[in-house]
Amino acid sequence: MSQFSSAFTAASSVSLPPPSFYVSVSKRSFIYCCSSSQSRTTVVNGKFDGKIVDRDEIRFGLPSKGRMAGDTLDLLKDCQLSVKQVNPRQYVAQIPQLSNVEVWFQRPKDIVRKLLSGDLDLGIVGLDTVSEYGRGDEDLIIVHDALKYGDCRLSLAMRLPDILAIDDLHIFVQIPKYGIFENINSLKELAQMSRWTIDRPLRVATGFTYLGPKFMQENGLKHVIFSTAEGALEAAPAMGIADAILDLVSSGTTLRENNLKEIEGGVVLESQAVLVASRKALIQRKGALDTTHEILERFEAHLRAADQFMVTANMRGSSAEEVAERVLSQPSLSGLQGPTVSPVLCKRDGKVAADYYAIVICVPKKALYKSVQQLRAIGGSGVLISPLTYIFDEETPRWRELLSNLGL
Ligand SMILES: Nc1ncnc2c1ncn2[C@@H]1O[C@H](COP(=O)(O)OP(=O)(O)OP(=O)(O)O)[C@@H](O)[C@H]1O
Ligand SMILES: O=P(O)(O)OC[C@H]1O[C@H](OP(=O)(O)OP(=O)(O)O)[C@H](O)[C@@H]1O
Ligand SMILES: [Mg+2]
């Protein structure tokens, strides 16, 4: 084995949580005890066995700090589910609108762990965290997979050739220095490099010690070892500690500033904030499913509305159907289910008649200007645009999916 073997874990080995968690460890299983407020639960392989702990409240885990914390509270507030926290160092809080819910602020990874151990019932974290710490456990159910913040991707990155500055006749020229990844632009090309052997494997630095080895195995990269660090992973290749890193990327600035490039096929997953629940809690805990339904409906209604504007306009026409024909002839004006067309009634020669019709449609924010142009083209005037707060539709597909996932 290479000189790095002590610091690295081979891709094929089973990766386990930090040793401080273990009571007894074998290669394939670990057992530890965790205490919950009401009883002690035996946890086997990271999840509790048997029935859920008896308690009246539904426990909802929210990120206590970091990137996800503020946006999560904002989302809940936008859904009229403001969290009342007496002071920021207090880890328990309430959502007055949901009287049976107790909020617990936790680190994202601990939210996933506590869902598995039965100490939380619901949580909001990034999909990356659910995937890494949930390890495909069937007890975790993604209730809403796109809360539209915390966007990032877990991606493999490697070093670009260094740029060597040479003072040549007082003119600085930049010459790319030889780099082993110079011509490697895809995962396939990386896997085909003959230089990775048992004695000199590809060294990857990552905090994702479950997803990293899994991804490499699934993609046929045989000779890979992993090292783990808590942060600033981007420094590892330049320090000569690793050949590549597997880390979260959002704007790409950190990679760029550290002379690292992503490669085709190197994205392990696309992540954003998700609402996740414990299957056992949804099935067994009184009120958990109803509360989840309410939270899901509020999230869906808000997120749907956030993408749309409500547009009203007046249009001259001979009948509501004739006006609707014209509106529906335009691709951006079909609305959610079609336009609402109402007569604008006025009195002429002593008779009430409709020369104008008011139309109301929802249009995607992105298509706003195109919609206004199309409305004008078919005779629309007095176009008013208003923000939408919620769109409560019929039962959402996500709720139906959840019920079928639970076998209900
Ligand atoms: N550029 C980014 N880098 C890291 N995480 C991001 C980024 N953009 C979005 N995220 C999301 O934010 C989460 C990280 O949040 P945060 O940094 O607060 O947690 P953490 O580093 O896992 O927490 P801790 O360091 O306390 O264990 C990620 O799991 C991911 O879902
Ligand atoms: O693509 P970008 O927008 O540049 O974001 C990516 C960086 O952000 C995260 O680091 P973080 O800021 O959490 O610091 P850390 O790595 O020290 O935890 C992540 O680990 C990357 O380093
Ligand atoms: Mg961080």
TrEMBL record:
Keyword hit for Transit peptide: yes
Domain ATP phosphoribosyltransferase catalytic: 107-298
GO cellular component terms, A-Z: chloroplast
Record-listed E.C. numbers: 2.4.2.17
GO terms of molecular function: ATP phosphoribosyltransferase activity; magnesium ion binding
Pfam families documented for this protein: HisG, HisG_C
Subcellular location: Plastid, Chloroplast
Keywords for the protein's UniProt record, in alphabetical order: Amino-acid biosynthesis, Chloroplast, Glycosyltransferase, Histidine biosynthesis, Plastid, Transferase, Transit peptide
A biological process term (GO) from this entry: L-histidine biosynthetic process
Pathway(s) this gene product operates in, as recorded in its UniProt entry: Amino-acid biosynthesis; L-histidine biosynthesis; L-histidine from 5-phospho-alpha-D-ribose 1-diphosphate: step 1/9
The keyword Transit peptide belongs to this UniProt entry's keyword annotation: yes
Cofactor: Mg(2+)
Catalytic activity: 1-(5-phospho-beta-D-ribosyl)-ATP + diphosphate = 5-phospho-alpha-D-ribose 1-diphosphate + ATP
Annotated ranges, domain Histidine biosynthesis HisG C-terminal: 305-389
Function according to Swiss-Prot or TrEMBL: Catalyzes the condensation of ATP and 5-phosphoribose 1-diphosphate to form N'-(5'-phosphoribosyl)-ATP (PR-ATP).
UniProt family annotation: Belongs to the ATP phosphoribosyltransferase family. Long subfamily.
NCBIfam families named in the record: hisG (TIGR00070), HisG_C-term (TIGR03455)
Protein name, UniProt field: ATP phosphoribosyltransferase
Organism in which the protein naturally occurs: Gossypium australe
